[in-house]
Design goal:
- 2 copies of one chain form a homodimer.
- Chain A is of the alpha/beta class.
- Chain A has 2 domains: 4-174 and 216-239, NAD(P)-binding Rossmann-like Domain (Rossmann fold); 177-213 and 243-279 and 295-310, UDP-galactose 4-epimerase, domain 1 (Alpha-Beta Complex), CATH 3.90.25.
- Chain A is built from 9 helices and 14 strands.
- Chain A has helices at residues 12-23, 58-68, 86-110, 143-162, 184-197, 217-230, 247-257, 284-288, 297-310, and strands at residues 4-7, 29-33, 50-52, 72-75, 115-119, 165-171, 174-175, 202-205, 211-212, 215-216, 236-239, 245-246, 263-266, 278-279.
- In chain A, the strands form 4 sheets. In chain A, strands 3-2-1-4-5-6-11 form a 7-stranded parallel beta sheet, sandwiched between helices. In chain A, strands 12-9-14 form a 3-stranded mixed beta sheet.
- In chain A, helix 3 (86-110) runs parallel beside helix 4.
- The longest helix of chain A has 25 residues, at 86-110.
- The first copy, chain A, starts with a strand and ends with a helix.
- The model of chain A has no long low-confidence stretch (mean pLDDT 93).
């Protein structure tokens, strides 16, 4: 059994990753938490294994890695921010690069044989109406995406120069229970749950014509586990269902699952200034490794809606 | 007459830039200095216009830009490091990104109409045996090059999102008087000057087969001045002579200029672990703007050798 460290360990994705690892019999799981959160994962992870620290604090990160000596690191921690001000985004940029540097240095110093799965994002790619493979043109157009791209390049340099066993995952959109508000599916499902209760009248929506590639978070974390096992050193793997779906279709599916008719109203304020016209994964590389998404979109949406009915 | 700010204002390149601007009648020139240096530029710039600060200090940078209100900024400041440890290079990465963020935010806040020439580097490109134009594949393979690439992308985001008048220059190797030791031409010229004086016996050299594109720093700063005037917003311009020269040829030329025979000896320690096989500029874009290098390599080398004879 491996000793596993998950950074960003109390977030939405980590909660599903911990669940999946637990089902595989993994018990020696450590998490890092930026804030005191993660009620869900406390079901599966001993409280003493939840380490609260800021990975941008170099000494704290060095100390943690030295103490835990993980065999595997799922590196999910990053500040996320797309819609905020340039100033806040610049802070995100600096923090995300600092934490990446610190983690890589800590690995080099204390656990150079550790396998690292670095979780990047498909947002680093330039806009395109074609499905994106790992060789697609890169064009981060905000400081958050830039911070993730810089993390990737730093990880690759580290892999090449220091022979670190690092693999890079670039997930496309993923959805599921426990995703925080601020993401479209969570927002809509929560609003529908409120409408069903009579606490809200209508559902305000933004741009419905964008095309995205939605993967169930449970399929996503299976890809991460697969990459930890079989990903090749220094390689990048895009992860997504491969199916482009109009946001309108997500809305229609959610409304069809609602227990009462949903009044949808257009809200111009919800349209982001720069919305990618399309963001769809060419998933051939990860499929070749043996991954395949198992969850149907409608069933995933039904589960998410049920989650919000129970957790508002 | 424009108010001009040069960051990294007391370095090698800045000293030539100040001289060239001065010859054009520019007198309202401000410099930033990281350390107390820049004896040469004090000939041309009032001492009160030399501002000592660390641009990675956000408040100091905001205060400076607010106070000076420059019309034009030549942004040369960055920590440079290629040969050092990974740890030191990571510090360079974080510092260079922080200072870029701070400068861009200061411009946005206090002088949004300022024209910014951001000085990047050709080192961000992936290895290639073809001359490199602005669309060449990028592949920063050390944290310094990565920091410069991240600076570029951040500058482009800022140019697009905040409509900053920013232009990006990617210089290839450039040489001239006052370049610090640690660069091959300066090292060899200084060594030859010492051999001429009888203070050194022989000239130790590393890899001589690499091909580089050497531009006289005086031609380089003319390109910067041209880009400040005519460069298009958000655009990248590679700058170099366009001529690939074997390092062996530089050595032969310098030895031919020496006042006594030079004994050259091979020093395996001077061979960098990763030496680009070739790094040559495709300069069509900057040539189209009206730039052309005016100095012949041999004359430049003779000037550099003369500099070291007088300044050892």
């Amino acid at each position: 059994m491996a000793r596993i460290l998950i950074t960003g360990g109390t977030g939405f994705v980590a909660s599903h990753l911990v669940e999946a690892l637990h089902k595989r019999g993994e018990e020696d799981i450590h998490l890092t938490a930026y804030r005191d959160e993660g009620e869900f994962v406390k079901q599966f992870v001993k409280t003493k294994n939840i380490h609260q620290l800021n990975l941008a604090d170099k000494q704290a990160t060095l100390d943690l890695i030295q103490k835990i000596q993980p065999d595997q690191i799922y590196h999910l921690a990053s500040l996320a921010s797309v819609g905020d001000s340039f100033e806040k985004q610049s802070f995100v940029l600096e923090m995300n690069i600092a934490l990446q540097v610190n983690l890589l240095e800590a690995i080099k110093l204390h656990v150079p044989k550790t396998k690292l799965l670095h979780i990047s994002t498909a947002l680093i790619y330039a806009k395109s109406n074609q499905p994106l493979n790992e060789l697609a043109t890169v064009g981060p157009d905000n400081p958050y995406a830039l911070s993730k791209f810089t993390q990737d390049l730093l990880t690759q340099i580290f892999s090449q120069k220091e022979n670190l066993q690092a693999v890079i995952a670039r997930p496309f959109n993923h959805i599921g229970e426990r995703q925080t508000l601020g993401f479209v599916v969570a927002d809509w499902a929560a609003a529908i749950a409120r409408i069903e209760r009579g606490e809200q009248e209508s559902l305000p929506v933004g741009n419905l014509s964008s095309v995205r590639d939605f993967t169930d978070v449970k399929d996503m974390v299976q890809a991460y586990i697969l990459l930890m096992e079989k990903g090749l050193q220094g390689e990048i793997y895009n992860i997504g269902s491969g199916q482009g779906v109009k946001i309108q279709e997500i809305l229609d599916l959610l409304c069809s699952l609602a227990q009462k008719p949903i009044e949808v109203i257009a809200d111009p304020q919800k349209i982001r200034p720069i919305d990618l016209p399309s963001l769809v994964c060419d998933n051939e590389k990860i499929m070749t490794l043996g991954w395949q998404p198992k969850h149907q979109l409608k069933a995933t949406l039904a589960r998410i809606l049920e989650y919000w009915r129970e957790n508002l």
